C-alpha cells in the first residue's frame, strides 16, 4: 500500500490509532519496567532520553479494567506507555463504574507514561481518546449522577456489558422501527437506548437530574475540552444515529462539524424517550463530528493541569475502543500477493478484524450496505470513512477465559506456580497442553478435547443469534480437578470461542461479505502458544 493512499482515510481518525498501527501483537507482550503504588500501575516500553525538538502524540485507551496511555512520535513509534486500574462494581446483571475514578486513572497513566518516556507536556501536540461504549450520566455542572439502585453518585456509568435492560431491549424491538434495520434488526441491551429506558423506568430522580447522557469516549473528550460534540462512531454504533443521513446533510451543506441531523425523532418518541429530543437533542448530542475532528479550543486549562500538558493542545473526536483498534489494524497489515493486484479500498473489504479483550468485536467494511440479521450495522462511516461497517461480536471471551480459570479448583496452585516462576498463568497452561500432546500421542492439539466441549454464550449471544438470554454450557466434566484438566477446559473454551467466530464469519459471508482474511488484535496470551495459535 502506498503511504499517500493510507493517509487519505487514516487522517480522519484519532491519534490513538497510531498504537494499533505500530503493532498487531498482543498488548501483553510488553517489557514490564516497573510497578508503582503496590503494583497498581504498569509501565512499559522505556526509551533512551530523546532530544526535545520533537512532536509527540498522546493516545488514551480506557478498557473495561484499566486506563492506558501511550506516547508516540510522528512515525507512529511507541515511546512509552503506562496503565492504571479502574474500579468496577458488579451486582448481578448490573455493572457500573465511576467517571471520576476513570479520569483519575487516566491522569495517573499519562503522568507515568510521560515520565517513563522522558516526554515534557509541551512536546505533546495532540490527544486522542478511545473507550468502551459505556453510558455516562452527568448533571448540568458536569457532576456525576447515579445510575445505581443504591443511589451512590460515584457510580454514574452503566458499563457496556451491563445486561439490566434486557426487557427494555425487547420492548424497543417490538416496535419494529425502521431504525432497527441499521443495527442488525434489533437493539441489544448493550446499546444505549435500552439502558436509557431502564433508567427512566426505574430511577426517576436520576433521570430528572441528568443533563447529558454520553458515551464514555465522548465524555472523556468533553471532560478534556468542554466541547460536548459527540462522535459519529459512538452515536451510530450505540445510539441508533443514522450516519448516512448525517453524511447526506453534510454534503448538501458543506460542513464537517454540524448540528446533529441523523436522529430519528419518531423512534425516540415510539419507545417512550421523546423527552430526549428536547433542545435539539441536547441531552444525547446536538452536534456530531467525524472521528479525529478537532474539538473546541483543545485542552482546557483545568484538564491540561490535571494531565500535565499544555492548554490548547488539540484533542480529536473520539472512537469506541474496538473501532480504534479496528481501523488501525485494518490498514496496518502488509499487502498479500493477492491484494497487490487489487485496489487498496477493495482489499480492505475482504478483511475482518477481531479486536479481542473482555469481549471480541468482529469488524468488516463494505462499499455497499449489507443488512445482516443478528449482526450490528450497517453503520455508515462509523470506523473507516465512507465505508459501511458490519460489527459482529461475542459478549464474553477474555472475560469467559478468566471466569473458567479463576473458578477452577486448580487455579490457585497454578497461579502460585506462575508467580514463583515469574511467568503468566497462560504460559503454564499452554505449556501443559504442549506436553499433553506428546504424553497422549495426540495428532494435534484440538484432539485433546474430544471429550470436553464448551458453548461460550455465558453472557448471551451477541452475534449472529442475537439472544442476550442465551446461556453457556460445559459438556464432558468429570471429578478430575487437576491442572491438566484445567488446561483441557481452557483449550475447550478457546475452541468454543473460535467456533463462535467461525459462525459469525460464515453468517456474514452468506449475507454479502467476502471475508477471506482474519486479523486478530488481542490482549489474550493465546498467541504465545504455538499449539493454540495453530488451532486458531
UniProtKB/TrEMBL annotation:
Keyword set, alphabetical order: Kinase, Transferase
All copies of domain Carbohydrate kinase FGGY N-terminal, residue ranges: 57-328
Classification via Gene3D superfamilies: 1.20.58.2240, 3.30.420.40
GO biological process, one term: carbohydrate metabolic process
Coiled coil: none
Lineage: Eukaryota, Viridiplantae, Streptophyta, Embryophyta, Tracheophyta
Kinase keyword on record: yes
Protein name according to UniProt: FGGY carbohydrate kinase domain-containing protein
Gene Ontology MF annotations: kinase activity; phosphotransferase activity, alcohol group as acceptor
Species of the source: Citrus sinensis
Family according to the record: Belongs to the FGGY kinase family.
Stretches assigned to the Carbohydrate kinase FGGY C-terminal domain: 353-516
InterPro entries: ATPase_NBD (IPR043129), Carb_kinase_FGGY (IPR000577), FGGY_C (IPR018485), FGGY_N (IPR018484), FGGY_RbtK-like (IPR006003)
Pfam entry (one): FGGY_C
Amino acid at each position: 500500500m502506498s503511504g499517500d493512499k493510507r493517509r487519505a482515510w487514516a487522517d480522519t481518525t484519532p491519534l490513538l490509532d497510531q498504537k494499533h498501527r505500530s503493532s498487531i501483537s498482543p498488548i501483553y507482550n510488553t517489557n514490564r519496567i516497573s510497578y508503582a503504588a503496590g503494583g497498581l500501575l504498569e509501565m512499559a516500553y522505556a526509551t533512551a532520553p530523546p532530544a526535545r525538538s520533537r512532536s509527540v502524540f498522546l493516545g488514551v485507551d480506557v478498557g473495561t479494567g484499566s486506563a492506558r496511555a501511550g506516547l508516540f512520535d510522528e512515525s507512529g513509534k511507541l515511546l512509552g506507555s503506562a496503565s492504571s486500574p479502574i474500579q468496577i462494581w458488579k451486582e448481578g446483571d448490573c455493572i457500573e463504574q465511576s467517571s471520576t475514578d476513570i479520569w483519575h486513572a487516566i491522569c495517573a497513566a499519562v503522568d507515568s507514561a510521560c515520565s517513563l518516556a522522558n516526554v515534557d507536556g509541551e512536546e505533546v501536540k495532540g490527544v486522542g481518546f478511545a473507550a468502551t461504549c459505556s453510558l455516562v450520566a452527568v448533571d448540568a455542572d458536569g457532576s456525576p449522577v447515579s445510575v445505581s439502585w443504591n443511589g451512590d453518585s460515584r457510580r454514574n456509568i452503566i458499563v457496556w456489558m451491563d445486561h439490566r435492560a434486557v426487557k427494555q431491549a425487547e420492548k424497543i424491538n417490538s416496535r419494529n422501527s425502521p431504525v432497527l434495520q441499521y443495527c442488525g434488526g434489533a437493539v441489544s441491551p448493550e446499546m444505549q437506548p435500552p439502558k436509557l429506558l431502564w433508567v427512566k423506568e426505574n430511577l426517576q430522580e436520576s433521570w430528572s437530574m441528568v443533563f447529558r447522557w454520553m458515551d464514555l469516549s465522548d465524555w472523556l473528550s468533553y471532560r478534556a475540552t468542554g466541547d460536548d460534540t459527540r462522535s459519529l462512531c459512538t452515536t451510530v454504533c450505540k445510539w441508533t444515529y443514522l450516519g448516512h443521513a448525517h453524511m447526506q446533510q453534510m454534503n448538501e451543506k458543506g460542513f464537517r462539524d454540524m448540528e446533529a441531523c441523523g436522529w430519528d425523532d419518531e423512534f425516540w418518541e415510539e419507545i417512550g424517550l421523546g423527552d430526549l429530543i428536547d433542545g435539539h437533542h441536547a441531552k444525547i448530542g446536538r452536534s456530531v463530528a467525524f472521528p479525529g475532528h478537532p474539538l473546541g479550543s483543545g485542552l482546557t486549562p483545568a484538564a491540561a493541569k490535571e494531565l500535565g500538558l499544555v492548554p490548547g493542545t488539540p484533542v480529536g473526536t473520539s472512537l469506541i475502543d474496538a473501532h480504534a483498534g479496528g481501523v488501525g489494524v485494518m490498514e496496518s497489515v502488509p499487502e498479500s500477493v493477492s491484494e497487490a493486484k487489487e485496489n487498496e479500498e477493495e482489499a480492505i473489504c475482504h478483511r475482518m478484524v477481531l479486536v479481542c479483550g473482555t469481549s471480541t468485536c468482529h469488524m468488516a467494511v463494505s462499499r455497499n450496505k449489507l443488512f445482516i440479521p443478528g449482526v450490528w450495522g450497517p453503520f455508515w462511516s462509523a470506523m473507516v470513512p465512507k465505508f459501511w461497517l458490519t460489527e459482529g461480536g461475542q459478549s464474553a471471551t477474555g472475560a469467559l477465559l478468566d471466569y473458567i480459570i479463576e473458578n477452577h479448583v486448580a487455579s490457585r496452585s497454578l497461579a502460585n506456580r506462575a508467580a514463583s516462576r515469574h511467568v503468566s498463568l497462560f504460559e503454564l497452561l499452554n505449556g501443559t497442553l504442549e506436553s499433553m500432546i506428546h504424553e497422549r500421542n495426540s495428532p494435534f492439539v484440538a484432539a485433546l478435547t474430544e471429550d470436553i466441549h464448551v458453548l461460550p454464550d455465558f453472557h448471551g449471544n451477541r452475534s449472529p443469534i442475537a439472544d442476550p438470554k442465551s446461556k453457556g454450557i460445559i459438556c464432558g466434566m468429570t471429578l478430575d480437578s487437576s491442572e491438566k484438566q484445567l488446561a483441557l477446559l481452557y483449550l475447550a473454551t478457546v475452541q468454543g470461542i473460535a467456533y463462535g467466530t467461525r459462525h459469525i464469519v460464515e453468517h456474514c459471508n452468506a449475507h454479502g461479505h467476502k471475508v477471506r482474511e482474519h486479523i486478530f488484535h488481542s490482549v489474550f496470551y493465546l498467541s504465545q502458544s504455538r499449539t493454540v495459535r495453530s488451532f486458531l
